[in-house]
Amino acid sequence: MNDNEMYYRRIIPDELKQLLMTGGELHWLFKLVTERDDLDFLIGINKIYVYRGTTRLLAIAFTRGIVSISADRRYLGLAQDNNLKIYGDKEKSDFNFEDDFIRLISCLPPNKHYDNKKEGYFQNLFSRQFGILSDGNEDFVVIDKEAVIGYQSNKIKGKYFGAQRKQFIEVKEHLSSQNAKKYGSKLGGESLGNELDFLAVNRSGEILLIEFKYGSSTKGIYLSPIQIGLYCSIFHDYINRYRQEFVRDIGDMIKQKKDMGLISTNFPEVNISDKIVPVLVIAKYKKSSAFDTFRSVLQICREKLKDDAFLSGLKVYDYSTDKILKSISY
What we know:
about 40% helix; alpha+beta; 11 helices
């Protein structure tokens, strides 16, 4: 890790990458994830994750020549209860646990974030469509999800992210004080995290910061300018400080994903820019009063932040069950 106060680089070691590629001992896992609509990969810092919807089933790490596979404690227990040899430190002879992994999936309890075919379900479809199932003709590709800027210490995180979050919490408090019935009461006490749903790159090399909502999530939709605004603030701050590293790291992330087959090799080579495009994607959008309130929140953000250009470049899309993105005018 470098000496910068902030960092953002989702890259895995070549030894770990090779395990998933053709001829690698875990190539069966790559094929399984590709073939199953409910599974997807996430590349973290020195780790490969396998998700089912929003459920993290595998975390694969390579450290000092040892491959370790872990998960949340509940899935470790589920595997143990069913005598499934999936988790723990692995030798290469231990990598053939495909049947056990499939059995684990069949043993999973219902997941309200995926099985109800709402937000988590559509996030998974979206991630796969613009990732592992991409063919190179897309307007953009997803290169990261659950994207988070890292900080060298909690003190440094408080210095930067804490100050950024504070101004948006103040906006939420103002909304509650102005009209609690319309916007919601005690909004300032609700969590406001730094985990972006998707980071994508388009064919012009622009950085898309994507927040994903389900159509029936009225409150989530009309408060989304606050969340998206915080993400933009975080990434603008990082890019302004470490532009050279950011451009290099995004390029390396794209190359590694192409090498692994996680995005199409046919997606064109792009010159990574420092331009950020904020994006809101709404799965199964239905016309409602949410967008009237959304516009009000957007205007109040501009007034409270004293920034008439706040989210002026925001793009909003409906994402249908047919996996089609359609622009929404707001």
